[in-house]
Structure to design on (748 residues):
């Protein structure tokens, strides 16, 4: 019968990086028990890993470390020996050891050579009989922290003896790397004549230390090194330095690390490896930035890629790539860094429509977090940051910025707010401070006012004429406009949008759905509102009356009205101008008439508008449509209230529970909006197909969060815990992780 073995390891405390998560999860997924001993809280342990207090093994707060490398590996070297003594049969594995296949060794001696030639034994994988003389000897040796290791070179031993005789013995923390690790293990294994118990190189170290960077090359390179005898695969934590320096703390795309993370459901961007230095991401930035939700993140110059990925995955935020030249001028044509940055985000799971190049002042909006690393105030003159400070700030903005001594950055930034020092480093013998800037109330209000200025009518008129082309047309009243773009199709899609959003918040400055409709080759009629008007304007009504009485709609075999929220209301209301046309509306309102919907508390800016007339109450006038497809979240009470008012036989209601009012954005982030919209607009979308596509929500952060909250709201904490464990073992969710930690504290 195969002997089932249990593995054990140590993490003193704090969050795991994706590398530790990957290695721990590999044991769980391969069916081998893995125990993680710890001394402090660990917020992101994969499900299935057994947690035990490290004080069961060593009851201490003396976490000695190699001082030269500032590494707790020394304490881990000591801990593993005590773990093996206290837990007979348990095999120690470092947190950078990946389970390739279960370790089912009959012998209690489980260890391997780490270099060719059977020269040195490593202790990343270590099993010894709990009562063996060799283990007792090693434990006895570690009791004296000033012992002179007999396995060091003669010269080193002589220097240590001289120091001891002078009254300054050398503490183990000052001794060479590995003194209680591979050097100690190799010495005592040889001393007790146990070399025949040591596994060959390929058992645990088929990729030896000199070749460690093979894990960052294409996956097949490592595959060639692995042999049938390989069980636990050492992936070398020392790779973290290179990953932090060269790869933004994430596994290189296409590498063995990348493939392994995908195989085990590890979302690396939620637990990046810390990097240090000028251009790398520092995971420590997340703590001073706090937990306030981020809707808009801006990177000035493209030096915070991993921070962008982490925030985008955590908070579903928009990412602005702010493109200024070294003198603060806008780069209308994207700079060389923009496309690699965009590709990096997309490769790490960020949807393309959430990434926007900002190459003009009008594209810059209020930001929750701004990164200005190795940028203005460090490499470039801080005064050239003015365009950002005048438009991107809002109440609650946080900017991480690098400030070089003598740059004048502090006086400049102090005009807008205040800075808090996070860290300091020396660059070319000059201090560079990494600081957290927060704007004053006045500076934030002034920037918001500048950003709120509506786009120049001339800018839209020029763009609209260009989009319409020689065969199309534009009609404009100043507050509303119609853009007709013919493409020779027998299908027309009528869309509704807010001009301010199109011109300031979309990189291509196109109306809602423009690119998607263009790709299908359909004709388009875009109705644009210059503000939150709900299209309640006599001029707009006159335009639809004119289109209805002419042969405009008659030339098409199929007409579909399409919009979301305010645009969804308009799609349902103005379909009355083309009886028989279909409607696709996402989270629409039925009306804002307070006498009809007194429970509607949103959109106060439009409450005083007249919602009567032939295009007034969308729930009523949409009865003239062929089919009305409503997509909405039934748990959003106001959206659900409007949906309930659509009672016609032509209405198909597609419910997307816990997806929120911004349903279109959520579906886009899930990667299913395009498929759903195509099917809806061409008339082939069925309920079964919609709900099949909606299954993608199980991996969507917002849905996971809302499902977790719903379980708590209904008084089912056990269900919430099961949901939380499911989510956290498949990549993590900051809100759920923190909530579970709070629940644990309350119960404790």
């Amino acid at each position: 019968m195969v002997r089932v073995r249990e593995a054990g390891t140590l993490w003193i405390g704090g969050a795991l990086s994706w590398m530790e998560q990957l290695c721990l999860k590999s044991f769980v997924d391969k069916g081998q028990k893995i125990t993680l001993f710890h001394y402090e809280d660990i917020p992101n342990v994969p499900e299935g890993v057994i947690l035990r207090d490290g004080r069961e093994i060593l009851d201490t707060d003396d976490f000695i470390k190699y001082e030269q490398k500032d590494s707790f590996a020394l304490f881990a070297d000591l801990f593993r020996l005590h773990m093996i003594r206290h837990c007979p049969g348990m095999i120690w594995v470092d947190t950078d050891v990946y389970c390739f296949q279960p370790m089912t060794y009959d012998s209690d001696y489980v260890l391997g050579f780490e270099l060719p030639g059977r020269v040195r034994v490593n202790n990343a994988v270590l099993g010894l009989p709990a009562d063996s003389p060799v283990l007792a000897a090693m434990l006895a040796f570690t009791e004296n922290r000033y012992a002179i290791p007999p396995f060091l070179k003669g010269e080193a031993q002589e220097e240590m003896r001289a120091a001891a005789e002078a009254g300054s013995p050398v503490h183990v923390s000052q001794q060479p790397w590995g003194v209680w690790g591979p050097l100690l293990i190799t010495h005592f294994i040889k001393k007790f004549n146990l070399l025949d118990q040591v596994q060959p190189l390929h058992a645990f170290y088929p990729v030896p230390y000199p070749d460690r960077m093979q894990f960052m090359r294409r996956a097949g390179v490592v595959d060639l090194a692995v042999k049938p005898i390989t069980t636990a695969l050492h992936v070398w934590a020392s790779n973290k330095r290179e990953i932090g320096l060269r790869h933004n703390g994430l596994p290189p795309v296409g590498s063995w690390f990348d493939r392994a993370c995908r195989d085990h459901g590890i979302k690396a961007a939620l637990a990046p490896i810390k990097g240090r230095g000028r251009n790398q991401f520092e995971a420590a930035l997340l703590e001073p930035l706090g937990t306030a939700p981020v809707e808009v993140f801006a990177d000035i110059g493209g030096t915070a890629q991993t921070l962008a990925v982490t925030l985008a995955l955590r908070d579903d935020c928009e990412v602005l790539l702010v493109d200024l030249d070294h003198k603060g001028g806008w780069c209308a044509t994207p700079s060389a860094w923009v496309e690699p940055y965009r590709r990096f985000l997309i490769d790490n799971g960020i949807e393309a429509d959430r990434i926007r190049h900002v190459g003009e002042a009008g594209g810059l909006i209020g930001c929750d977090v701004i990164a200005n690393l190795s940028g203005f105030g460090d490499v470039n003159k801080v005064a050239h940051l003015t365009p950002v400070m005048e438009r991107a700030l809002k109440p609650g903005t946080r900017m991480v910025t690098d400030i070089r001594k003598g740059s004048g950055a502090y006086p400049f930034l102090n005009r807008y707010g205040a800075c808090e020092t996070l860290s300091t480093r020396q660059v070319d013998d000059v201090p560079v401070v990494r600081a957290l800037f927060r704007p004053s109330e006045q500076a934030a209000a002034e920037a918001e006012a500048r950003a709120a200025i509506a786009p120049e009518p001339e800018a839209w008129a020029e763009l609209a004429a260009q989009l319409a082309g020689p065969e199309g047309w534009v009609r404009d009243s100043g507050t509303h406009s119609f853009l007709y773009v013919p493409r020779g199709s027998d299908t027309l899609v009528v869309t509704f949008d807010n001009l301010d959003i199109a011109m300031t918040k979309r990189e291509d400055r196109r109306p809602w759905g423009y690119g998607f409709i263009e790709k299908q080759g359909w004709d388009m009629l875009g109705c644009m509102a210059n503000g939150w008007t709900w299209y309640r304007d006599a001029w707009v009504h006159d335009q639809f009356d004119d289109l209805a009485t002419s042969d405009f709609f008659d030339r098409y075999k199929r007409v579909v009205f399409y919009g979301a929220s305010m645009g969804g209301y308009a799609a349902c209301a103005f379909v009355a101008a083309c009886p028989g046309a279909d409607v696709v509306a996402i989270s629409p309102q039925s009306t804002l008439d307070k006498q009809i919907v007194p429970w509607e508390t949103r959109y106060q800016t439009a409450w005083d508008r007249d919602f009567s007339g032939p295009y007034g109450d969308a729930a009523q006038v949409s009865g003239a449509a062929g089919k009305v497809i409503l997509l909405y979240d039934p748990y959003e009470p106001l959206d659900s209230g409007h949906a309930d008012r659509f009672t016609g036989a032509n209405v198909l209601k597609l419910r997307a529970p816990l997806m929120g009012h911004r349903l279109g954005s959520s579906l886009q982030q899930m990667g299913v909006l395009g498929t759903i919209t195509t099917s809806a607009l061409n008339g082939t979308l069925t309920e079964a197909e919609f709900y099949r596509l909606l299954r993608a929500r199980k991996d969507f952060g917002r849905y996971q969060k809302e499902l977790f909250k719903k379980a708590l709201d209904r008084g089912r904490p056990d269900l919430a815990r099961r949901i939380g464990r499911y989510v956290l073992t498949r990549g993590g969710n900051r809100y759920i992780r923190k909530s579970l930690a709070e629940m644990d504290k309350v119960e404790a």
Observations:
- DSSP finds 28 helices and 23 strands in the chain.
